[in-house]
Design brief:
With 101 residues, the chain is mainly alpha-helical. 55% of the residues lie in helices and 10% in strands. It starts with a helix and ends with a helix.
């Protein structure tokens, strides 16, 4: 994850999640369009979650949501307002998932 972060963002340290926009032709008429890839650092998830499997999966879900939001145009860096909007959307989606899972 450190290598990916350095190569694609120029930041020479690890991170918990990275998103990469798809390089597939956006004009394709697919039933399930590919918008990109989300890479999650499982070692960081394990450290953050502690010993509970429930917390582990909750952190995976949170990071997956975070990565997908980046792929759909949300940003949190450089603006406290944008960070607040993104955190609110993350929590809204996570709460919705908790209701159905």
């Amino acid at each position: 994850m450190t290598q990916l972060n350095a190569a694609y963002r120029g930041i020479k340290k690890t991170t918990d999640v990275l998103s990469f926009e798809a390089s597939i032709d956006a004009d394709r008429d697919d039933l399930y369009p590919v918008i990109g890839d989300v890479v999650i650092n499982i070692q960081m998830v394990s450290s953050a979650a502690g010993t509970s499997f429930a917390d582990f999966y909750l952190e995976i879900y949170r990071l997956l949501i975070h990565g997908i939001l980046h792929l759909t145009g949300y940003e949190h860096e450089g603006s406290k307002y944008n960070a607040m909007i993104m955190r609110k959307k993350e929590q809204e989606i996570l709460n919705a998932l908790k209701k159905v899972c």
